[in-house]
Amino acid sequence: MSITDEELALTAAQAGAAVVHGMYGATLTRFQKSAGDFATAADIEAENAILDVIRTARPDDAVVGEESGRTGSGAAERTWLVDPLCGTLNYAARSMLVAVNVALHVGSDVTVAASADPFAGEVFWTDGTRAYVRRDGVDEELTPSPDSRLVDVNLDPPFPNEPGFRAVRLLAEPGFIERFRPRVVSTTLAVAWVAAGRRAAYVTDGHLRDNVHFAAGIALCQAAGCVVTGIHGQPLHTGVGGLVVAADQETHAELLDLIDR
């Protein structure tokens, strides 16, 4: 029986989430990647579970995994972007703030995506047109909202636009504290939360095109109707890069004003 791309993304993300949930709290082997960055055995096993699902259903597609790199044909038009455990540092410290991200890149677009929360039992997903959250097999359409005034700011490196822009300085800006309440979740689960109305906005530096961490969350926010641009309001993936995703135009404009200061 054939499976649609969106159901495949959901199934793959859920497979990875099951591994992440099952290995939580165990003493895990760490694999050093660079200074201050490592993967755990849970990252590796979750990615393998996701790849097994994708390769079984779509053997001709290419895959880019955070841990395994690119596999499959370099000429493939369809490429799956896989982040098996976004928030490894959180997870290793026994914090449950993590996400499992799967997105399909076809040509120049992400056409389907899923971002799973292994501990809440939720999967945020999009078919490229609308965005939903699935709980206990039931889908609910996502509705962005600025009402919480909570803005998540990513403080993790790299910082390609410093000294002109450094996210940590945004937290010290008096106008930011007056208008918003900062949060630092340190996982792209917070990007999905903007689409779901649980965050008013999300801000990060970096060059994020075809990024396994951000592709799913960006696609969710775009399908849900959020305002999604680079850090200076330019079209996404152009100019200096970065990301400002906001629930509405007013929040987006306020954040751009603060960033430009």
Structure report:
The protein has 261 residues and is an alpha+beta fold. It has eight helices and 15 strands. It has helices spanning 5-23, 41-57, 88-92, 167-172, 174-179, 189-195, 215-224, 249-260; strands spanning 30-34, 37-40, 62-65, 69-71, 78-86, 99-106, 109-117, 122-126, 131-135, 138-141, 150-153, 181-183, 201-204, 227-229, 243-246. The protein has an eight-stranded mixed β-sheet with strand order 4-3-5-6-7-8-9-10, with helices on both faces. It has a five-stranded mixed β-sheet with strand order 12-11-13-15-14, sandwiched between helices. It has a two-stranded antiparallel sheet with strand order 1-2. Helix 1 packs antiparallel against helix 2. It is globular and about 50 Å long. The N and C termini lie far apart (55 Å). The model has no long low-confidence stretch (mean pLDDT 95).
Q: Could you provide a short overview of the structure?
A:
With 261 residues, this protein is of the alpha+beta class. 31% of the residues lie in helices and 28% in strands. The mean pLDDT is 95.
Parts with pLDDT < 50 across at least 5 consecutive residues: none
For this structure, the quaternary state is single chain
Strand neighbour order, sheet with most strands? 4-3-5-6-7-8-9-10
> DSSP helix count?
8
Q: State the separation between the terminal residues, measured CA to CA.
A: 55 Å
Q: Rounded to an integer, what's the Rg over CA atoms?
A: 17 Å
Q: Could you give a short account of the major beta sheet?
A: 8 strands, mixed
Helix and strand composition category:
alpha+beta
**Strand residue percentage:** 25-35%
DSSP strand count: 15
* Principal-axes shape call: globular
